[in-house]
Amino acid sequence: MLNTKTTRLSSLLPTYLVEEVKKVSTEEKITQSLVIKKALELWFNNKLDRDTKALAKINFDDLPSEDDWNLIQSDIK
Fold first, then answer.
1. pLDDT digits (tens, 9 = 90+) for 13-65
2. How open is the CA angle 36-42-45, to the nearest 5 degrees?
3. Residue 64 and residue 58 in contact, taking contact as beta carbons nearer than 8 Å
4. What is the Cα–Cα distance from 33 to 50, expressed in whole angstroms?
5. Which of 11, 29, 44, 65 is the most buried (most CB within 10 A)?
């Protein structure tokens, strides 16, 4: 993902998630923030994938043809 400015975030999570974050952090020897960052990046990438697939299914058959667009375009150059 992008290297961007970071911002502190406070959240309330169920205990089982906090315990899992701590477990993964210890096992992988990474910070808890990095565990959460990786999880959110995975979620975000999956969301982008779903959104992209949904957009690809949109049918734009209600748009004018290129000839129709040319008829309504201004002649100002």
1. 999 999 999 999 999 999 999 999 999 999 999 999 999 999 999 887 777 88
2. 140
3. no
4. 26
5. 44
